[in-house]
Amino acid sequence: MNGAPCKTVQQLCDYYGFSKPLYYALKKKGLAPAELKVGNRTVITPEAERAWVEAHTIHAAANAQETA
After folding, report:
1. What is the gyration radius of the CA atoms in the chain, in angstroms?
2. Strand order in 36-38's β-sheet?
């Protein structure tokens, strides 16, 4: 790990500007970042967050090229 703190689901939603219901809708479709269960908490590691951002950034860029 790179020393950056893990984010809770709420912190991730706040950071990226979307709601928890949207997060859980994305999770249901398999489109949310990987989660880590720590006791009764669910957190997203910086590595999982980075992988999620990169995967969806690449996807968005590919879609933009297809429509251009």
Report:
1. 13
2. 7-8, 41-44, 36-38
The pTM of the full predicted model, rounded to 2 decimals, is 0.79
The pLDDT tens digits of the residues spanning 1-56 come to 568 899 999 999 999 999 999 999 999 999 999 999 999 999 999 999 999 999 98
Q: How many angstroms separate the CA atoms of 57 and 41, rounded?
A: 27
Main-chain phi, psi angles of 63, to 5 degrees: -65, -40
Domain-embedded: residue 62: yes
| Enclosing domain of residue 42 | 7-67
d(CA 37, CA 43): 6
Q: Count structural domains, the chain.
A: 1
Give the DSSP H or E segment for 36: strand 36-38
